[in-house]
Design a protein that fits this description.
By secondary structure, the chain is mainly α. The chain is built from four helices and no strands. The protein has a domain at about 1-40: Orthogonal Bundle (Arc Repressor Mutant).
Length: about 80
């Protein structure tokens, strides 16, 4: 079966690099990527998105006690400093 897919230029560039590096055709790279994606399909995983990342919740410490209430304020401060 033949399939035509539109993709960003950056995808094509990355596929071309991989193709040269691995000595494979672009179509082989795309087939491998699709195969991997389909094999990793989470059909059997009925957890909610929160359940999937729950082990990460609370695993990072910011040191800012009111970050939950004033997150916009802190984000705006950070963006001002970056520019």
């Amino acid at each position: 079966m033949q399939l035509t897919v539109r993709m960003p230029d950056e995808f094509k560039q990355k596929i071309d690099r991989l193709s040269k590096k691995m000595g494979l055709k672009r179509s082989d790279i795309v087939r491998l990527a699709l195969k991997r994606f389909l094999e990793e399909d989470n059909e059997g995983d009925h957890r909610t998105p929160f359940q999937r990342v729950s082990q990460l919740v609370g695993s990072a410490e910011s040191g800012v006690k009111d970050l939950g209430q004033r997150h916009r304020y802190y984000l705006a401060q950070k963006l001002r400093k970056a520019s």
